[in-house]
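Hi support team,

I submitted a single chain yesterday and got back a structure, but I'm not sure I'm reading the token output correctly. Could someone confirm the output below corresponds to the sequence I sent? I've pasted both exactly as they appear in my results page.

Thanks,
R.
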Amino acid sequence: MKSIKNIAFVLFLVFALSHCTKNDDCDPDTFCDTLPYDSGNVNIEVSYKGKGIPIIVYKGYADQNEILFYDTLWSEEKSYYLPLENRYAVEAYYYESNSTIIALDGNKLKESSFWNCDEKCYELAEITLDVKKL
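Hi R., thanks for writing in. Yes, this is the structure output for that exact sequence:
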């Protein structure tokens, strides 16, 4: 009787483990780009009220002062295609009366991927840096 219980337990265990490793998230109709990207989108959002908003985009943290470029935004959002696996920071300058308000945000642009049918599929990586005036 013990051997039947042991065999049943072993069969149950084998079935349970094989079921756990099965890839249930397989959709052969899903587009899969198997080549990794080297860059992605860095979206910058500002509070646009009819005046151009000067920005500075940094590689790394803003206090490291590694300036990539300066720009002036004439809409609420602009996107830049920049290399992956880097941290980016942005400062936006809002001029009011006799004062300047500086908004700052930063994040790392990382590779974006998922698994489908035992293939690694790459997606265009994207981050949004929000430097809207509060």
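A quick pointer for reading it: The longest strand covers residues 86-96. Let us know if anything else looks off.

Best,
Support desk
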